[in-house]
What does this fold into?
Amino acid sequence: MRKLILNLIIVFTVLLTVSSCYTLSYSVGKGAQKGIDVIEKNHYLIYGLAALKTSDPTKMAGGAADYDVTISHTFIDGLLNAITGGIYTPTTTKVTK
It folds into this structure.
């Protein structure tokens, strides 16, 4: 019985640690042409319910007509989320021109 409970705890711990990792990618126009990266952080409170600061990919592209956008939780973002217990939840936006 103890072994079953221990295994369930391990499974739930693994599921909780990998459940919040996500990446959203999309292309505008023909996609990235030059390979220049611009990276900004997005700041949210309470598991992302309240936005403090969000980046604008159009402004980050600097007038470029063709670029790729990737919004993701990096390891550091997840670590900060875990340390604060979900009160502070950052994400990272990367625009490749």
Q: What stands out?
A: The radius of gyration is 18 Å.
